[in-house]
Amino acid sequence: MVLLESQVKLKTRDHAPDFELLGIDDKKHSLNDYKGYKGLLVIFMCNHCPYVKAKIKAINEVHEKFKDKIAVIGINSNDPINYPDDSFENMKKVAKEKGIKFDYLVDETQEIAQKYGAICTPDPFLFDKEKRLIFHGRIDNAMKPEDTATEKTMINNIEKFLSGEKIKKDFDPSIGCSIKWKEQQT
Description:
This protein is of the alpha/beta class. It is built from 4 helices and 11 strands; from the N terminus they run ββββαβαβαβββαββ. The mean pLDDT is 95.
């Protein structure tokens, strides 16, 4: 396991890169499908990473709390050949086991992770209604899988955003396993 901290590729106010990806509901999803929300939370995640496993409950909480205002999307960009736990079929299985009710999509070509600059799992990106980046960073302040969160960073930032307040720190790096690339990335 390679532990990485998220890095800045998309800058604050940059537009979310578009995508068309297959979801575990066996339907194609694109950025355009998420009109009508006040915001969008895109989280690069996977099934096998202990950092993601430790955050599923918190991610589900974010979705439940804001599902009418913020669309939550999980994107799995890991190589399923070398990491079969992250296969599309296992995405469906994990979603059912963990009660994932938000859209969970597969990035088979890994092109979308590259466009967003995602490098670890989880790697969350929060966008406003115009799909402009307003926060890139952690779900909470528990930085190891065994840690207990004492601050709900993403929930706090979404609440600030929805109430019209400025998010003070627009980048607060997440930590997790590296995205498992199909071939060496530059």
